Amino acid sequence: MVLLPRPKIGAMSYRIFLAGATGVIGSRLAAMLREACHTVIGTTRSPAKTDALRRIGVEPIVVDVFDAQALARAVAAARPDIVIHQLTDLPRGLDPAKMDEAIRNNARLRIDGTRNLVDAAVAAGARRLIAQSIAWAYAPGPEAHVESDPLDVGAQGIRGISVRGVAALERAVLDAPLEGIVLRYGQLYGPGTGTDAATGKSPVHVEAAARAALLAIDRGARGVYNIAESNPHVSTEKARTELGWHADA
């Protein structure tokens, strides 16, 4: 690994550790970060994907987020100012036949993988951690849901497994001794998501979702932000006001 000088906090560029750099959002975000002149160290589980990261100027790291010690070493070596969590464990195209098992695996990643990543970020001295969450985990109640509304942690079945994983991820990020930012994405659409058309109650295009994480590098206080197109189910006023994020800009 070639180490470059760490930029001062408040400078225009940062050292960024992007966990999940080859995922649906992560791959787009990686390119945006490089275009913005940030130094990006990106993780992948697959050695076959490292060349694609190198081609866009990202330094690839092959690491398993469930291997806490290996992950801690990788983050420490990267010396990041900012850590971004875009890790998921979902089937390509969200194949319905595989979704029950995938939701269980994804919940484990949100619980155990997030804990390992947060611990590694804190130990490495990162100042901010930005994490992917979802905007359809709210408990039933008046809409449009704002970020302070409770999550549906008492849900039964596979939804309950998913929401409790989300709640664990968010607690880990927001309780950590750094600037924790949680982006609750709506239902993704666009290239690589399995659908080209807006779907679900709170849709968001994958490019707009990645752009929210890019903005959160420099903007927004510790907390949660709904990231979705304008809809009657979740409010996105906070993201527009504090992050300067707009779904179509």
Gist?
With 249 residues, the protein is of the alpha/beta class.
Overall geometric form: globular
Query: What fold name stands as the CATH topology?
Result: Rossmann fold
Flag low-confidence runs. Answer: 1-11
The largest sheet, given as strand count, sense and whether it forms a barrel, is: 7 strands, parallel
Strand tally: 9
The CATH class:
Alpha Beta
Determine the strand fraction and express it as a percent band: 15-25%
State the end-to-end distance.
36 Å
Question: Based on the structure given, which CATH architecture is correct?
Answer: 3-Layer(aba) Sandwich
Task: List SSEs in N-to-C order.
Answer: EHEHEHEHEHEEEHEH
Mean pLDDT: 92
Task: Identify the CATH homologous superfamily.
Answer: NAD(P)-binding Rossmann-like Domain
Q: How much helix, percentage-wise, in residues?
A: 25-40%
Strand order of the largest sheet: 3-2-1-4-5-6-9
Oligomer: single chain
Q: Give me the secondary-structure category.
A: alpha/beta
Features:
249 residues; alpha/beta; Rossmann fold; 7-stranded parallel β-sheet; globular
Could you describe the 3D structure shown?
With about 250 residues, the protein is of the alpha/beta class. The chain has a single domain (about 15-245), classed as Rossmann fold. Helix content is about 35%, strand content about 20%. The protein has helices at about 25-35, 50-55, 70-80, 100-125, 155-175, 205-215, 235-245, and strands at about 15-20, 40-45, 60, 80-85, 130-135, 180-185, 185-190, 205, 225. The strands form two sheets. It has a seven-stranded parallel beta sheet, with helices on both faces. A two-stranded parallel ribbon has the order 7-8. The protein is globular. The chain starts with 14 loop residues before the first strand and ends in a 6-residue tail after the last helix.
